[in-house]
Amino acid sequence: MPTGTPPTPPRTDTSRAQPARVYDWLLGGKDNHPVDEAVGRKLPPQAKDAARQNRAFMHRAAAWLADQGVDQFLDIGAGIPTEPNLHQIVQRVVPTARIVYVDNDPIVLRHAEALLVSSPEGATEYVQADVRDPGGILRQARGVLDFSRPVALSLVALLHFLPDDQDPRGIVRELVDALAPGSHLVLSHAASDLHADLARQVTEEYARAGIRLGFRTRDEVARFFDGLDLVEPGLVTAPEWFRDEPAPPAEDSGIHAGVGRVPAGGAA
């Protein structure tokens, strides 16, 4: 059941494209506006594949973590709810699981009541906050999650919206430093080194809409996992990351993805 009531949402700006709404359009959702669709239509067809691959990776990683007994999740950059959402995946396995969703887009807040439909035994909460304020996110999340126990931190398809001048590594470090041993970082990130021409095209189209991107190489993405133990199969493309279920169909991808575990002594 929900642990709180979302505040009254601010007015949604429909004059400019927003990443969560463009992502919703790429996934075939209906909670977007013409300005978002206009951006999506200018992107290469592979952008829809990337959105789908990100989503499927999140499903596989969340289900595997729940199977390992992880019962607390902090999903930053949650986006517009698309079923099945993270809490539905997790609570099928662990009905008592507690999930905190975080996003800074007002339209996501507008859909928070639907997102907050938890299993009766568990809890979900929505926090409107910006990843660039990790301290504020942690303060609010502590009202629902017990950070003395393992938490799965999900940063799926988020960090490439933070260019280097916004200190994404410092942000991730502050979030990971708050996690107890046995916690996990679930991360996917658009690649600059797998399909350079496509990456450049996507970056330019988003820039025309006023959205800055910072795609990164595999080595640059690997630095987000510094101090963590990468879970097999390591840092791979999104369709290549799976654990106990049958392998997903092989397909080309421009997304790096991985899961890292906080070791017994904490992140180095």
From TrEMBL:
Comp. bias (Low complexity): 258-268
GO molecular function: methyltransferase activity
InterPro entries for this protein: SAM-dependent_MTases_sf (IPR029063), SAM_dep_MeTrfase_SAV2177_type (IPR006764)
GO biological process: methylation
Keyword tags: Methyltransferase, Transferase
Gene3D superfamilies hit by this protein: Vaccinia Virus protein VP39 (3.40.50.150)
Ranges where the record places region Disordered: 245-268
Highest taxon in the source lineage: Bacteria
Name the UniProt record assigns to this protein: SAM-dependent methyltransferase
Gene source species: Streptomyces althioticus subsp. attaecolombicae
Lineage per the UniProt record: Bacteria, Bacillati, Actinomycetota, Actinomycetes, Kitasatosporales
